[in-house]
Every structure is written in structure tokens, then in C-alpha cells.
Design brief:
Elements: H1 3-16, H2 18-23, H3 33-52, H4 59-73, H5 78-96, H6 103-127, H7 129-138, H8 149-152, H9 156-167, H10 172-184, H11 190-201, H12 203-218, H13 226-238, H14 246-262, H15 275-280, H16 284-291, H17 312-325, H18 328-337, H19 342-355, H20 359-367, H21 375-389, H22 396-403, H23 409-423, H24 428-443, H25 447-463, H26 468-489, E1 498-499, E2 502-503, H27 509-520, H28 522-528, H29 530-537, H30 543-558
Antiparallel strand pairs: 1-2
Helix pairs in contact: 1-23, 1-25, 3-4, 3-30, 4-5, 4-6, 4-30, 5-6, 6-7, 6-9, 7-9, 9-10, 9-11, 10-11, 10-12, 11-12, 12-14, 14-16, 18-19, 19-20, 20-21, 23-24, 23-25, 24-25, 25-26, 25-27, 28-29, 28-30, 29-30
């Protein structure tokens, strides 16, 4: 098994262990003296971090750390949090103004700041939707930046509509305002998602918005606006009573009827080949229901029953639901009807089959996976999962027997860590024994395998509330500092670790991934021993890494949610 497969395996086992992590969380109530004292320390630490954000040279790091700190500080010091969010906006505008002549670096910078903007917007929206709208409009991407098409497709209007969706439940009047402003700029498929969100969160607002859309369509010459025509028919086919108000829906059908008749679609023969004539057949049964005799001339356009076209956003919404809640057969049936989802859903079907112990079915699905190059790796992973599935972590003998069949240390380490995760919630002693055995193997390895194994062990020990996890991190600190210094010296040769002479937190390479894993899970160590965790963070030699570690320690206490541990892989998402 490759290093990548080993790391991905560890990700899976740590996520499986998340339930155990939660059960091992703090037993003190939020009102206890111990909990209150710890939260006071965390708040003080967070204020210290916030006070040092301006000392960072990198706008990227200031925005990332400032955004996280502002979110965590909001309930404790709203004024300070607002100030931090304003500063983040300034840094994002700085990032968008990047003028690097290196096309690849320029695009990467824009992508990073685009993601920082999106994440910050979500954080602000939780606290103050109006402020989120101000932030969004104040940080618009300048024109002609060269940002890749797959990002620029997400237009400013789409961002505002997404924000409207985020705040629809709490601020329906703001969501409706944003929807109307977007509608004033034209008919966009983004409006459908907005309408669907309002329907699920505020019925009155959704009815009002639907009426506004129909009113605008009444003032539109459908024959002269193909985009509006397609929009109107999609609306009529996707949002029907009782999903929407029937009287307004009848108005919509009336708009389509009037448009079709005005453009000659009711003539027995002739030049009536406009788009609206071809489309009118998709709603003819409803034309006939509401308008009877007036609709009769359009009957010749009626289609055979074939069901309405489903917009892409709805297909992917359905795909997510069937992946989460469907059986293997239901997933495969969905793929057959929607072939464009096969890359994602075939994987879900494989995992579902594995979860039920049907490994033969999992292999059969994997053998049909569209990407032939990935099939061998998928089948190898199924073989490994079957081996794991066949063992009983409550039976040490079966674990040791299975362990003897693995081919290398990476597989043995991953298997022991996973076994500890599977049993940790019910038998801490046995889980620790598995970790101790894995530790012996890790000690006999070298290089990336050893370093990755040590971080994995530290995280798993932490979930079992064992101080050995902190001891491992403590022993790693000198080596991590050396590796960070070496990586900084080699910056740009294999990976870009630095931005404005600071570590950029993007998780690039194995080292970046290890630091990301430790940073994301600093809260676990903080809940185990806050003061010792802060002392360990202070051993990081680069100030920006130290600030990020302290931030994550404080967040881990103030959020009071242990959550799942996140392990590392070959490529990483930044610590946003």
C-alpha cells in the first residue's frame, strides 16, 4: 500500500472514532468552576492572539487567523470581533489586488483569497446577516483578475443568493430583499435555489418571491427573450402546487399561454416554430386544466408523458440524498437515470456495500467504475476493508492473526490505529494496548512513515484522554521546527510553503499536512491539558504557526465541541 493509501486509511479510522471522541469529552458542566476557569483562559488566549494579528506580514495569514478569531470572539467581545472582520475585508481586497506576473502564482493567490472570503462570509452570516451583506459587497472581486472559470462561474449574484439562503430562516425579509435585487438584474437559474430555500424556511416569503417572479415575467416579451422563456418553463415544471400557491401558479401558466398564442403557436400550420411553441407542450395539461377552451389551439404541441427536465442543482441535491440515505440498489438506479453522477455515486455504492459486509458486490461495482486507472486501487482498498471487517477488535487473537497478513508497516500501523478506534469507546484499556503495539512499529520505521505514524498516534492517544499524546507531540517539536526551517529554505523548489516570508498554512506537502492535522485537532489536546498545550504551541519557532496553534487551542475550548479528528493526506485544504 502506498503512503497515500495509508494516510487515507488513517483519515477513515479517525472519523470512525469521532463518536468515541465525543463520548470521551469534558464531563464538567458548562457552569462548573473548572469549565468556567478553562474558558476564561481560552478567552484570554484568544484576545492575545487577536492583538497580535496585525504583527503578521502576510495578508493571507492575517485574514485567516483574524477571521477565525473574530468568529470565536463574537459572543465575548462583539466590538472587537467586528473590528477584526473589517480588517479581514481589507486583507482580502489586498489579496484580490495581487499583481504577480507569474500566472500560476497569481491565480493561486486569487483562489486562496476567494476561499477566505467565502469562509469569512459564512462566519459573519451566523452572527449578523446585514454585516455579512456589507462584507460581501465591500470585497467584490475586481474585473479582469484572471481568476479561473470554475471559480468565476460563481458570480457575485450567486454569492448574494447563497447568503440569502443562509439567513432565510432568521432574516426572511433580508433574504427576500436580496432575491428581489437579483431578480431585478434578470432571470437566473440561481433564483430557483433561492426559491427552494425560502419554501423550506419561510412559506410567506416564498409566496411573495414567487409572485415577484411571475410579475416580472408578465412584463417580459417571451418571444424576444429566449433565456426568460426557458426560465419560465423551468419554473412552471419545477415549482407546482401544492409546493407553491395555486392562484399564483395559475397566473404563471396564463403568462405562458398568452405568450404562446401571441407568437402564433395556436395556428394550425405555418411558421410557428419559435422556442415557446415547442416548450408549451410540456405544460399543456395544466393549460387545459386552468384555461380550457383558450388552451385548445395549442393541443397539437402536447408531448407524450416524459416528465419534466430536472435542473442540475436539483439532480445533485437528489444525488447527495440518495448517497446518504439510499441503499446500494437505489444508488445504482439513480446513476442509471443520471449518468453524470456515476463518478461520485459509484464510490458511495462501494462504501455502502462494504458497510453491510457485501464485499463481492463492492468489487463488482468497483470493476465498473468509469475511471479504469482508479479501479485497481479501489479493489485493493475493498480487499483491505474486508480484512478489517472480518476481525473482531474485542478478540485480540483475531487482530494479531490479521496483522500477520499485512505486507508492510504502513498497513500494520493503520490497522492497529483503526482497531483502537473501533473499540475505544467501550474498552479503553484494550484500545491503549493496540496503540502501544502500533507505537513499537512506528519506532522501528523512518522518515515520512515514522513522522506520520507519530502524529496519528498522538491524536489517537488524545481521544483516549491519555497524556501520552501530549508527550509524543512534545518529543516531535524539535524535529518539526527543523523540518519547517528546512522547508522554508527550500521554498518554491517542490512546494510553496511561504507567502510574504511567512508559512502560508495551505497544508502543502507532507509537512504541511502534518501541521494542519495538529492544528485542526489542537482543541483535543487543550481539553486534555490546556496549560501544557499552550506551552507546546509556544515551542513553535515561527510566530505565525504559534499564533495559529494558540487560536485553535482557544477555539477548541470555547466551542465546547470535540467533533471528529481530522487526519492528513498528500494534499490538504488550508486551515481556514
Amino acid at each position: 500500500m502506498s503512503h497515500r493509501s495509508f494516510f487515507i486509511g488513517v483519515i477513515v479510522l479517525v472519523l470512525l472514532f469521532s463518536a468515541s471522541a465525543r463520548s470521551q469529552g469534558p464531563t464538567s458542566s458548562a457552569g462548573s468552576d473548572e469549565s468556567a476557569a478553562q474558558k476564561k483562559k481560552a478567552t484570554d488566549l484568544l484576545l492575545t492572539v487577536a492583538g497580535q494579528v496585525d504583527s503578521l506580514r502576510s495578508a493571507q495569514n492575517r485574514a485567516r487567523i483574524g477571521s477565525n478569531a473574530a468568529d470565536a470572539l463574537w459572543e465575548h467581545d462583539e466590538k472587537r470581533a467586528r473590528s477584526l472582520f473589517a480588517a479581514v475585508g481589507e486583507d482580502i481586497r489586498t489579496g484580490f489586488a495581487d499583481a504577480d506576473t507569474d500566472f500560476e502564482k497569481h491565480n493561486h493567490t486569487l483562489e486562496v483569497f476567494w476561499q477566505l472570503r467565502s469562509d469569512t462570509l459564512g462566519r459573519i452570516a451566523k452572527h449578523d446577516p446585514e454585516l455579512a451583506l456589507e462584507f460581501l459587497r465591500a470585497t467584490r472581486l475586481p474585473p479582469n483578475t484572471g481568476l479561473p472559470a470554475y471559480l468565476t462561474d460563481e458570480t457575485e449574484k450567486s454569492q448574494e443568493l447563497r447568503l440569502a439562503g443562509q439567513v432565510a430562516a432568521k432574516k426572511p425579509e433580508l433574504a427576500l430583499k436580496l432575491g428581489r435585487e437579483s431578480l431585478a438584474q434578470g432571470f437566473s437559474s440561481d433564483l430557483f435555489a433561492m426559491l427552494a430555500t425560502l419554501q423550506s424556511s419561510n412559506k410567506a416569503a416564498s409566496v411573495s418571491f414567487y409572485q415577484a417572479i411571475v410579475d416580472k415575467l408578465k412584463d417580459t416579451d417571451l418571444a424576444q427573450d429566449a433565456g426568460a422563456t426557458r426560465f419560465a418553463f423551468e419554473l412552471a415544471n419545477q415549482f407546482l402546487p401544492p409546493q407553491t400557491d395555486e392562484s399564483i401558479y395559475r397566473e404563471l401558466i396564463g403568462v405562458l399561454l398568452a405568450g404562446a398564442l401571441a407568437n402564433g403557436c395556436g395556428k394550425p400550420t405555418g411558421e410557428d416554430d419559435t422556442e415557446i411553441c415547442y416548450e408549451i407542450g410540456s405544460v399543456f395539461p395544466r393549460l387545459e386544466k386552468y384555461y380550457g377552451v383558450r388552451a385548445a389551439p395549442l393541443k397539437r404541441w402536447m408531448r407524450e408523458a416524459e416528465g419534466p427536465d430536472v435542473p442540475q442543482y436539483e439532480i445533485w441535491s437528489q444525488a447527495r440524498q440518495v448517497a446518504e440515505n439510499g441503499t446500494v440498489d437505489e444508488i445504482l438506479a439513480f446513476v442509471e437515470k443520471n449518468p453524470g453522477t456515476k463518478y461520485e455515486l459509484y464510490r458511495s455504492a462501494v462504501w455502502k456495500a462494504e458497510a453491510t459486509g457485501d464485499f463481492a458486490r463492492a468489487r463488482q461495482i468497483a470493476s465498473d467504475y468509469p475511471n479504469e486507472e482508479m479501479r485497481p486501487a479501489m479493489i485493493a482498498e475493498i480487499d483491505l476493508q474486508q480484512k478489517r471487517f472480518s476481525t473482531n477488535p474485542n478478540n485480540p487473537a483475531s487482530i494479531q492473526q490479521a496483522l500477520s497478513t499485512f505486507h508492510n508497516d504502513e498497513e500494520r500501523i493503520g490497522f492497529l490505529l483503526e482497531s483502537a478506534g473501533r473499540i475505544g469507546a467501550n474498552d479503553r484499556k484494550a484500545a491503549l494496548a493496540f496503540l502501544n503495539q502500533a507505537s513499537q512499529i512506528v519506532d522501528s520505521t523512518k522518515g515520512k512513515t515514522q513522522l506520520g505514524g507519530q502524529v496519528g498516534l498522538a491524536l489517537m492517544y488524545c481521544t483516549l484522554k491519555s497524556n501520552r499524546g501530549l508527550s509524543i507531540v512534545e518529543s516531535l517539536m524539535p524535529r518539526l521546527n527543523q523540518l519547517v526551517a528546512a522547508a522554508a529554505a527550500l521554498d518554491g523548489i517542490e512546494n510553496n510553503y511561504l507567502s510574504d516570508e511567512e508559512w502560508n498554512m495551505t497544508g502543502a506537502g507532507t509537512l504541511g499536512g502534518l501541521l494542519t492535522a495538529l492544528g485542526q485537532n489542537a482543541g483535543c489536546f487543550a481539553r486534555l491539558d490546556f496549560d501544557r498545550s499552550v506551552a507546546l504551541a509556544n515551542q513553535l519557532e515561527r510566530p505565525e504557526l504559534r499564533l495559529m496553534a494558540e487560536l485553535k487551542i482557544a477555539q477548541g475550548i470555547l466551542t465546547d465541541q470535540p467533533g471528529p479528528l481530522l487526519m492528513f493526506r498528500e494534499t490538504y485544504r488550508p486551515i481556514y
